[in-house]
Every structure is written in C-alpha cells, then in structure tokens.
Amino acid sequence: MHRIELLAKVHDRDGFDYGSEPLNLFLKQTARQHATRGISRTFVLVEEAASEPKPILGFFALNLCQIQSEALPPVEARKLPRSVAGVRLGRLAVSKHRQGHGLGKILLVAAMKKFLEIFSMAGGIGLFVDAKNRDAKAFYEHFGFVPLPSNEIQLFLPVATIQEALAEKG
Ligand SMILES: CC(C)(COP(=O)(O)OP(=O)(O)OC[C@H]1O[C@@H](n2cnc3c(N)ncnc32)[C@H](O)[C@@H]1OP(=O)(O)O)[C@@H](O)C(=O)NCCC(=O)NCCS
C-alpha cells in the first residue's frame, strides 16, 4: 500500500531519480525551503511500510496562483471576474524505475483531493499545470485537463471536473 506525505526530513530525497537533474535538484535542494517560506508545498508518495529514510516513489508540488480569466477557455471564463485564483500543480513526477504502474495516477488523484481541501476553505477555480513536453501534456489531457487558448503548454482542470472525477471514484 502507498501513502502521500508532506515532504520531510524522513524522506530519502537524495535517492530519488526521475531521470532529469533539474527535477531531482528541486526535490533535493529547493522543495523544503519553498515549504518553509510559503512558496509551495511538496507531497511525496511512499510505501506505507517503508523505513527511514523512506524511498520517494513520486512527488508533486502545489502552490496558489492567480489567473486572468481572459486566458481561460471562453466557456470557463463566462461570468468570472477579471482575475481569479487557482492552484498550480508543479513538478509531478514518478521515479524513473516506477513509471507506467499507476503511480502517476495516484499522485494526480492526491493532488485533486488536496485541491478540494483548499477549495473548501478558500475557493479556487481549478488546477493549473505547465506541461514540460508533449508526453506530459498527453498525460494531463488523459485526465481531462484542457489546454489554455492563450498558451498551449498550460493546462487547466476545472473544479467541476475534479469534483465529478472524485465522486466517481467514491
Ligand atoms: C507522466 C508521468 C507522471 C506518468 O506517471 P506514470 O506512473 O508513468 O503513469 P500511470 O502508470 O499512473 O498512468 C496513469 C494513466 O495515464 C496514462 N498515461 C501515462 N502516461 C501517459 C502519457 N504520456 N500520455 C497519455 N496517457 C498517459 C496511462 O495509460 C494510464 O491510463 P489508465 O489509467 O486509463 O490506465 C511519469 O511518466 C513521469 O514522471 N514522467 C516524467 C515526468 C513528467 O513528464 N512529468 C510531468 C511534469 S510536467
């Protein structure tokens, strides 16, 4: 069984290899500083029975963001004020040797649940993500993210889609 935990000292940040050094460095050097300073929060996926230092199977980061509603697909922008709040999903990645076994989906569902916690307390129109490449974009589109007309690498998952997806999962 797996669990999602807030990144902490008990996690083996040095052992994580996603296959790209900038992302590895974010986890090793930046993520905890960002959490302390309120810039973002990083959550890691670990085996429930893992002993310390717990190997990190995958991770994602969340931070608050502000969006100009004119950048949204027109159907989503209707009746919104000019500037609205959302949550940015940053740097979702699965360890190089564990990709293709459902862990990316576990991370994404966890990010949606975290979004709904934020939504219940402070609102937010949905999750935003910058897809780093075509593969990443296809992954997000598979889960209902839609590209922003103003910037094709930025994708958006509206709150209604998140609520529906999580209600279906039960
Ligand atoms: C993209 C990534 C997070 C996917 O994680 P994963 O563990 O390999 O994916 P999963 O096995 O959980 O796949 C879940 C579902 O997404 C689909 N999927 C996975 N990668 C996909 C892709 N590139 N394009 C379209 N669908 C994809 C799977 O077929 C599966 O579908 P199903 O639930 O209908 O069976 C992972 O491969 C990764 O870390 N890649 C490199 C980092 C990266 O590009 N991150 C995105 C940051 S912008």
Quick structural summary:
The model has no long low-confidence stretch (mean pLDDT about 95). The chain is an alpha+beta fold and about 170 residues long. It is globular and about 50 Å long.
Q: What's the average pLDDT?
A: 95
Beta fraction: 25-35%
Give the domain tally: 1
Bound molecules: coenzyme A
Number of strands: 9
Could you describe the 3D structure shown?
The chain has helices spanning 21-36, 74-77, 103-122, 134-142, 159-169; strands at residues 2-6, 11-12, 41-47, 54-55, 58-68, 83-94, 126-130, 146-148, 151-158. Strands 1-3-5-6-7-9-8 form a 7-stranded mixed β-sheet, with helices on both faces. α3 crosses α5. The chain has 170 residues and is of the alpha+beta class. The protein starts with a strand and ends with a helix. It has 5 helices and 9 strands, in the order ββαβββαβαβαββα. It has one domain: Aminopeptidase, CATH 3.40.630. The structure holds coenzyme A. Coenzyme A (COA) binds at residues 92-94, 99-105, 131-132, 135-136, 138-139, 142.
